[in-house]
Amino acid sequence: MTATATPPQAPPAPPRARRPSAPLLSAPAARIATLSALGLWAAVRWSTLVEPSGAGRMIGLLLLALVTGFVVGQLSRLPPLAQAPAAVVVVLAWAGISMLVAGVPARLVLDTDNWDDLALGLQQGIEQLPQVLVPYSQSDPWPRVAILLGGALLLALGCVLGLSPGRRGVPLRGGAGFGGGVGLRLAAATPLIAAMLVPPIIMEPDMPVVEGLLLFVLLAAFLWLERLPRGNAAAAIALLAAAALGGALALPRLDGEKPWVDVQALVEGLDRPDPARFDWSQAYGPLDWPRTGREVLRVRSTVRTYWKAQNLDVFDGVRWIRGAPPQPLAPDAEVPREARRQRGWNVSVRVTVRELTTSDVLGAGTTIDFEREPVRFSPGSSPGTWVSDEPLEQGDGYVAETIVPRPRQAALRAAPADYPQELFRYLVVGQPEQSAFGRWTPGPGSVFAPPFGSVDPDSPQGLVSAQQFATGPYARTYELARQLAADAATPYDYVRRVLDHFRDDFTYSETPPRRQLPLDAFLFRDRLGYCQQFAGAAALLLRMGGVPARVSAGFTSGTRDDAREEFVVRDYDAHAWIEVWFPRIGWVRFDPTPSSAPALSGRAPETQAPAVAATTPTLPRAPELPEQSAARAAAAEAAGEEGGSALPWIAGGAALLALLSAGGLLLRHALRPPRDADELLAELERALRRTGRPAEPRLTLLALERRLHDSPDAAAYVSTLRHARFAGADAAVTARQRRALRAELARGLGLGGRLRALMALPPRWGG
């Protein structure tokens, strides 16, 4: 039997693999679209922290962040040794452009000579953040810049992480990619989520449920859209809707009365020194005003003048005090019509309060009106002065419209003694009375001095004539006034004679003795005192001679910085002066105090001088920015105001930008150190000024060297500079000497002072 072979069976074909569904969107398109949407909502929400809204600037910062993230993602294509330098260039470019978009002037960002001013400005804005209220709307622009830059940093972090390369990156044209893991995308979303959540945490949102659902949708799309298969899109949308609905229903239980994170409690832990306070009443004893050198005001004005807080227009027989007109008067009631129309006398003054608490609204001359009041302002006791319903504090700002007469000397000399009857109250001098124990106290009687040159002895009803002076306790003061007025042809001539009287035989001292009749004792016994004695005695002599006069108190102009077009006013600029009224001109300022007074010399009292210079440590001043609209919301909700007083991690973000600026500044100094004695001298002057110790006009290098005798290396630095400057020696200062001088500049200023000293006198290569 023949066997038949069975043909072999072919193996069964393997089952066909299921073809994966195509993604709903291509990965690059999904990543860029969802990141842009998430960043856009973060930018819009962050912009509500400032008022008016900074949405335009924040959107610009978002576009910059996206470009920066893309560029950083491409750095991996460079050779390894070139990646780190390229990253530094990208970061510095981002920081510079971000500051421009946030509102910093180009001259501060693009000119390396201004980088130190830029760093100080950012520092000032960051320091003010714990005290600001949001939405921030004050006139000081640096806190606004700091807030916007904090948002810029969050946007940049999110975009850089979201577009960063990874081993499982999404391929782009040319083979490069960015990270595709959900973990990395979640890390990228974290700073963007923070930018969205901070505003509603601080300020209660109008539609919290809607905003929460929008955030949920945007976040889900960013995390999973690029990997979502098209076939699963419907199920994903249904699941997303169910989760959103569940979250909306659970919101009432999650939103309790107590916050999960008590931002206010965190803020209260930030310790800051108490602001300066001033009592403008005239005590005539040892001066007790704050004299630490703190910056109390920053004023932008086209005119150098004094910044007035109060008028002391009543002499009660012992001292000058605030009075009140017989009836409420308009702010410009004592301004002649001619003065209102005088070109250049209407001055707009922008005031920003620094380390000061006051209910007196600082202005100049006669303040008529205001723009951008942070709180309600009301007329003060004297026309042209104002008080605030709530104390003004650091960061508050406003624009005052003022009238500041600046007449020519010929116009003053030609002004007659033709005073309207409404001004007669400025010719009244109170009389003291003596108690049973022999003490002089303010009395109920007052004496009227007839107008200058008048022979009419009649006095207004209820007031005795000037003859009463001859038999009262101010008899010799009245006799001095008559002598000074005897040879004066005009009221202005009399004013000049009174001022000249204090030029000789009178000494400036902040520790005069206490007297029962302090001004009479100042004129004839002690002959020493400070601005209160000089101003009070001059105004008393002028009134007795028939010229309307009063004492004013506030601050001198402070230090002018032409580059920033602002005046920086410190606590030792507090001052008292006199104002004299002239027909067709109005109130004109005169100052009888010697120029050696700290408020007039631009330096702190010698008794307060530190080891390095004759001024006390102070915070540096910040550069001026373009004016930004500011008006605090008058009816802001209390909860929003309280909770919005600090953004600690905003400060952290802006601080990083400040560090970048400071790093660039230090790098500039290291790469371009001073090359000769002149440059070293200019650097030393800047270092003294920027550490709050500006050299007084008469300070010499030899005097500074002697002040540094406790630090031989620091003294040697100045000695080397002195010999190089005047003896032609080499300016070979050593790194050790430079470190010693920097330590002296920072002495007593704390951590912030050490940082300022480091920026002012940074290390440099080669010495």
TrEMBL record:
Region (Disordered): 1-21
Pfam families given in the database record: Transglut_core
Name of the protein in its database record: Transglutaminase-like domain-containing protein
SUPFAM superfamilies from the UniProt entry: Cysteine proteinases
Keywords: Membrane, Transmembrane, Transmembrane helix
Domain of life according to the entry: Bacteria
Record InterPro entries: Bact_TGase-like, Papain-like_cys_pep_sf, Transglutaminase-like
Transmembrane region(s): 24-43, 55-75, 87-110, 145-164, 176-202, 208-225, 232-251
Domain Transglutaminase-like: 523-594
